[in-house]
Amino acid sequence: MLDKELRSMIGDVKDGRMDRRAFIQRLAAVGLTAPMANQILAIGGVAMAQSPNPYPPTKRGGGGPLKLLWWQGPTLLNPHFATGTKDQDGSRVFYEPLASWDVNGHLNPILAAEIPSIQNGGLSADAKSVVWKLKPGVKWHDGKPVTADDLVFNWEYASDPATACVSISTYSGLTVEKVDDLTIRIKFNDPTPFWANAFVGAYGCIIPKHLFAEYKGGKSREAPNNLKPVGTGPYKFVEFKPGDLVRGEINPDYHMANRPFFDSIEMKGGGDAVSAARAVIQTGEYDFAWNMQVEDEVLLRLEKGGKGKTLYAVGGDIEFIAVNFTDPNTEVDGERSSLKTKHPILSDPKVRQALALLVDRDSVKKAIYGRAGRATANYLNGPEEFVSKNTKWEFSVEKASALLEEAGWKAGADGVREKDGKKLKLLFQTSINGPRQKTQAIIKQACQKAGIDVELKSVVASVFFSSDVANPDTYSKFFADIEMFQIPMTQPDPALHMRRYHSRNVATKENKWQGPNFPRWINKDFDAAIDAAETETDPVNRAGLYIKCNDLMWQDTVFIPVMHRLAVEASANSLRPALSGWANQTDNLQDWYREG
Amino acid sequence: MSQYVLRRLMIAIPSLLGISLVLFVVLALAPGDPFSELATNPNVPPEVQAALRARFGLDDPIYLRYLHWLNAMLHGDWGFSFVSRMDVDTLILQRLPATLYVIGSAQILALLIAIPVGVYAATKPYSLFDQVANTLAFVGFSLPTFFTGILFILIFSVTLDWLPFVYTTDIKATGIHYVLEMIRQAIMPVAVLGLFQAASMTRFVRSAMLDVIRLDYVTTARAKGLGQAKVIVKHVMRNAMIPVVTLIALQMPAVFGGAIVTEQIFRIPGIGSLLISSILSNDTPVVMAVTFVFACLVVLFNLIADVLYGWLDPRISLR
After folding, report:
1. A488, A491, A490, A498: which is closest to A545 by C-alpha?
2. In sequence order, what are the residues at sequence separation of 6 or more whose Cβ sits closer than 8 angstroms to the Cβ of residue A540?
3. Residue range of the domain that includes B165
4. Which residues cross the membrane (chain A) (predicted)?
């Protein structure tokens, strides 16, 4: 879309000639997420819609207990230490951020009085600062008022490396200063087009200064309130048993009218996904279960005549096959898959393209992921509408064979292709996980037809995903030819998701394989586009740059996307949970209610 | 006697040290690390992972870490969970009541079934009762708990809707309702575990009884004109119980250790489920503490079994 056209559209929205929804739909058509479209409007001077989730109840409480079943229970309740989503979900019952992402991808103010925009003076035109205003009169569960000091403290606490918070990168590269008792200003070191990160969403939850001030830095683990949260959320803390149970009761002083609906909340942990689905969908013992990693077939069977149903939230999680650009079988200076080598087979783009043609995404979807997956050609998948329109995929053994012929791989006597006396043999690794092994089998079969001998390898997940320097089987060492796993998209912005593959981030022995660019793919155009996008303040140009990055990865076949995965939840028929593919399941907990 | 106990306790010290060393080294050499979940999270920079590893001393050499652990253990500090960031002993104590209640009840149920059935079957070997009891026992210990557990859930929860299959630790009731609810939710796990244990124990009791019942002194007792009940209970059972006591004593640590599979199926927050989730998340201090406590209990109950022998059979002298 032309820049000028966009500007005139923003003008139309400002003057009320075009409604927001139409604007967002127009942008979606060119591949922009709703959150991004909203931020464009905000920077363009149009206030973000304050669009809370639909909430009909007219009084606080009276909804009885809300029973949640998390098959991996929360193990700690400090949002700054929450490693997994299970811990973030548990913390979020009691702690709140300034704003969270709602179902439509809008920012929904929680502790903030309003969402910053250019009009209300919250955003600066150079994208280097944000002013947040706190809602007046919000109290911690112990009765103390929430002030700007708490916000400043959270930044100090999280950004101190000695505290060892997992939220550290959310709060680094910026400074937070107090303007008055209810106002803070975030100053970014560099222009930051995606400003809604610090104090927003799961890592944005705010802990009280008066209880944690003494436990900043090295003493962080001694804080008694790590296990006894005192927050601002809709429910007050009652009891916590790590891995088993989180219990809360209604907060009668909650700062939103008529909320929450339920009188108490219980989050039970443990067990497995299938029986969790059964307890919600079939017997109705629980109201809601999280993360239904269950075969679609099983869910469909449970849903027949059951008491609950499955819900799907669209985010950007992508299951893909990565291609190794370096040679895993040659050692250079004691390092396998060294940058100084080139993969003997896969460095030929035609072989990579042939591989991409051999991934039968329709069969994978049909046989394995069902309603929980969407076939895609893109590595970067926003919600439904975020699709780079320039890419495509197909499954064709004939075309793949033709490409391999062109590349000089001729059929051998045993059906395996060879070139210069070398067999076309690939090692394909992934983590041990039912769907992944089935996907491997489907791909191996297609490869066999095309004359590629694929050896399958599965590594225990705890090893595959570990950062253990001594172990050769980790995904980041990538001592195989191709590998498959999933990378979740943790926020509605591609910056983090795409930055990984910048050439400065290559995983090598030198950085103990902690560089996130594990395919060891180096592309100058990609680097330039990422660098430009990081400081680009014009939202349309920025989005274009990320689409370009995605397309470059597609052209080079760095990744063969297998499935765009959706979050699957199980819910009682009467429950109306507010879910978003851009947020954790409990991020809009205050808006949950029951109907009938 | 007291000298014997003291000597046995002294011998236990080196064996416990050896056990702890083996456990520690195996866990330290095992693949994976507690911060693996951070690895695929693009929000967490590698420096934070490194800082966390340094904080929890994961980068020290193994022997240093072992000495630190041993020293802390001697001071009553069981360690600090990487994952929950809390003390391991609190974590274990939180889980203990559920385990003791469920697994303990299952053991009692097993004994209540196994001893009468085993004894009665032995008094009338190859009778109809014995045949039926034997068949059921074989069926019982051929069916693994993960199978019977799910079968029970399907029958009693899903189809009949009589019992809940998610074990909750916070029942919202008081007085008699609380007790009834506690019993109601424990019926299935206790039955699954208890019947499984009872099956093998019945076989064991029966064969121990059969060994004794054929001895001459039993015939003598009968010849003296003692009644059947008195012969069986006072003369046969007391001697037949010696191997049974060993079996039960060795199973007692399991009461504390929990039952991993059953706890997982019914979501019982016991030690077994703590152990498995800690293993899966590589939370080594918790795994270490649980397994070590388990080792101590095995040693202790072995000793208790030996002491009990002396009481059951005065001919066994303890020196």
Report:
1. A498
2. A1, A3, A6, A40
3. 95-312
4. 27-49
> Which of the following CATH numbers is that of domain A318-420+482-558: 1.10.10.10, 1.10.1780.10, 3.10.105.10, 1.10.8.640?
3.10.105.10
Q: What is the pLDDT of residues A123-135, one digit of tens each?
A: 888 888 999 999 9
E-strand spans in A1-76?
Answer: 65-70
Residues with Cβ within 8 Å of B76's Cβ and at least 6 positions away in sequence, in order, are none
Q: What is the pLDDT of residue A452?
A: 93
Look at residue A15 and tell me whether its pLDDT is greater than 80: no
Integer Cα distance of A265 and A66 in angstroms: 5
Tell me if A83 and B38 make a contact (CB, 8 A cut-off): yes
Minimal CA–CA distance to B91: which of A216, A85, A90, A73?
Answer: A73
pTM metric for this prediction: 0.80
CB contact under 8 A, A81 and B161: no
Give the distance from residue A508's alpha carbon to the nearest chain B alpha carbon, in angstroms: 13
**Could you tell me the end-to-end alpha-carbon distance of chain A, in angstroms, rounded to an integer?**
46
> Fold for domain A65-269+568-594?
D-Maltodextrin-Binding Protein; domain 2 (3.40.190)
Report the C-alpha gap between A428 and A322 in whole angstroms.
10
Considering its fold, how many domains does chain B have in total?
2
Residues in chain A: 596
Same domain, B115 and B213: yes
Tell me the C-alpha distance between A181 and A567, whole Å: 39
Q: Which of residues B17, B45, B77 is at a domain's end?
A: B77
Positive or negative torsion for Cα A189, A193, A194, A197: positive
Strands A373-374 and A559-572: antiparallel
- What is the spatial distance between Cα A432 and Cα A440, in angstroms, rounded to a whole number? 11
Query: Which chain A residues contact residue B266 at CB under 8 A?
Result: 271
pLDDT 10s digits, A489-539? 877 888 888 888 999 888 888 877 878 899 999 999 999 999 998 887 777
Task: Please tell me which of the candidates B37, B55, B91 has its beta carbon nearest to residue A84.
Answer: B37
CATH number of the domain encompassing residue B143: 1.10.3720.10
Structure tokens at A171: 């709060």
- Kindly calculate the radius of gyration of chain B based on its CA atoms and give it in whole angstroms: 24
Looking only at the bridges linking them, the beta strands covering A422-423 and A453-459 are unpaired
Q: Which amino acid is present at A256?
A: M
Beta-carbon count within 10 A of B17 CB:
11
Which chain B residues are closer than 8 Å to A490 by Cβ?
A: 41-43
- Measured between alpha carbons, how far is A41 from A105 in angstroms, rounded to an integer? 13
